[in-house]
Specification:
about 180 residues, single chain, 9 helices
Length: about 180
C-alpha cells in the first residue's frame, strides 16, 4: 500500500513537471523542433517524446546547476538525429509502374527565383548587399563575414537583419511563403 501511494506521488510530480516544462518552454521547443524537422506534425511528435524523456529523468532536471532549456533542446536535437539515422537505415520503398514515364523537372521556378533575388540584391545598399553575399552566397559565418568585410560581428548581424527586412518589404508575398530568409 505504501509503495503504491509513493508511486502515485511520483507520477503526480512527474505530470506537474511535464506541464510546467511545456508551459515555460513548449513554444521554444516546438519552434526549435520545427526548424530542425521542417515538418510541424513531426516536430510535435519530437516535443512530445522530449517531454516523456524529461518525465523519465525528472531527478536530473531538479538540480540547481541544470539548464533545463539547454537539456530539452539537446534532447530534441538527439531525437531528430535518431529519426534521421533511422530513415537512412531503411530507404523508403516506392512502387514504380512500368507504364509511368519520368517527367523532366521544370526549372522555370528556380530561374524566376534567381531573377527576383538578383533584383532584390541590386536594390539594397552596398553595405547590406555585401553582408548578404558573404553570409548566404558564400556561406560565411558572422565572424568570417566580419573579418572579410573588416567590420565588427555586431555590425554584420545588424546589417543582415535590416537587409532581410528590406527584402521582405520589397517582396511581401514571397516572405509569407518562407522563400525570403
Amino acid at each position: 500500500m505504501r509503495q503504491s501511494t509513493s508511486r502515485r506521488r511520483q507520477e503526480a510530480a512527474g505530470e506537474l513537471l511535464v506541464r510546467s516544462l511545456y508551459e515555460h518552454h513548449g513554444r521554444a521547443m516546438l519552434a526549435y523542433a520545427t526548424h530542425l524537422t521542417r515538418d510541424r506534425s513531426q516536430a510535435e511528435d519530437v516535443v512530445q517524446e522530449a517531454l516523456v524523456r524529461a518525465w523519465r529523468h525528472a531527478d536530473l532536471l531538479s538540480g540547481e546547476n541544470v539548464s533545463v532549456r539547454g537539456w530539452l533542446f539537446t534532447v530534441i536535437r538527439n531525437i531528430v538525429r535518431d529519426m534521421a539515422r533511422a530513415r537512412k537505415i531503411r530507404p523508403v520503398e516506392v512502387n514504380v509502374s512500368p507504364d509511368v514515364i519520368p517527367l523532366e523537372e521544370d526549372h522555370a521556378d528556380s530561374v524566376v527565383d534567381s531573377m527576383v533575388v538578383a533584383d532584390g540584391l541590386s536594390r539594397l545598399s552596398d553595405e547590406h548587399r555585401q553582408v548578404l553575399e558573404q553570409m548566404y552566397l558564400r556561406g560565411s559565418t558572422v565572424v568570417q563575414a566580419a573579418k572579410a568585410l573588416g567590420i565588427p560581428p555586431g555590425t554584420v548581424k545588424s546589417r543582415a537583419y535590416y537587409a532581410i527586412r528590406a527584402l521582405r518589404q520589397m517582396y511581401p508575398n514571397l516572405a509569407g511563403e518562407g522563400q525570403v530568409a
